[in-house]
Amino acid sequence: MNCPYCRHTDSRVLDSRSVDDGGSIRRRRQCPECERRFTTIEQMQLVVVKRNGVVETFNRDKVINGVRKACKGRPVNEDQLARLGQQVEDCLRASGQAEVPAGEVGVAILGPLRELDQVAYLRFASVYRQYESVADFEAEIALLRMEPVGAPGGDTASTSGAAP
């Protein structure tokens, strides 16, 4: 770690603390050359591996923008979308994986979106799961009716869109 003051290439860690519920590490450091102190924050880099093999940094705004399209015309506000984006990121970080397949991002979206707005959930799921017929919608609606929001197993992430 380079010293931000004298650019010396080494520093000594004086104290380390977990912050953001374990999502980051705050380190207090001291430069052995100029003896000045500074703080660094270290955070795990979360990347998404797309279906075509391209790897890109996770972007919460992309999640929010995708969900915003499904919520168009629905009684969902920007604060709720921001919370959903944070929930998705927290869920992905909690998995402990630095590289997350794109499909897992979609699965992480489905649960919180189902609790937020069931119509938006159906819209998003229809694209994400590539519904091909009215029967796919009917099967998903049947699952929504069988499992009330907030019920155990209610995220329907493990379903394939087929009839139960």
Elements, N to C (H/E): EEEEEHHEHHH
| Strand count | 6
Distance between the amino and carboxyl termini: 55 Å
Radius of gyration: 21 Å
Q: Major sheet, described briefly?
A: 3 strands, antiparallel
Question: What gross morphology would you assign?
Answer: elongated
Task: Output the number of helix runs.
Answer: 5
Overall mean pLDDT stands at: 86
- Uncertain segments are 151-164
Instruction: Tell me the strand percentage band.
Output: 15-25%
Strand order of the largest sheet: 1-2-3
Derived structural class: alpha+beta
**Proportion of helical residues:** 40-55%
Give a brief description:
Helix content is 41%, strand content 19%. With 164 residues, it is an alpha+beta fold. Helix 1 (60-70) crosses helix 2 (78-94).
Overall description:
This protein is an alpha+beta fold. The chain has 5 helices and 6 strands. A hairpin with a 6-residue loop joins strand 2 (about 25-30) and strand 3. Helix 2 crosses helix 3. It is elongated, with a radius of gyration of 21 Å.
Layout: helices, strands, pairs:
Blueprint (H helix, E strand, L loop, with lengths): L11 E8 L4 E7 L6 E7 L3 E3 L5 E3 L2 H11 L7 H17 L4 E3 H15 L1 H11 L5 H13 L18
Parallel strand pairs: 4-6
Antiparallel strand pairs: 1-2, 2-3, 4-5
Helix pairs in contact: 1-2, 1-4, 2-3, 3-4
Task: Describe this protein with a few key phrases.
disordered C terminus, three-stranded mixed sheet, 6 strands, 5 helices, 164 residues, three-stranded antiparallel sheet, alpha+beta, elongated
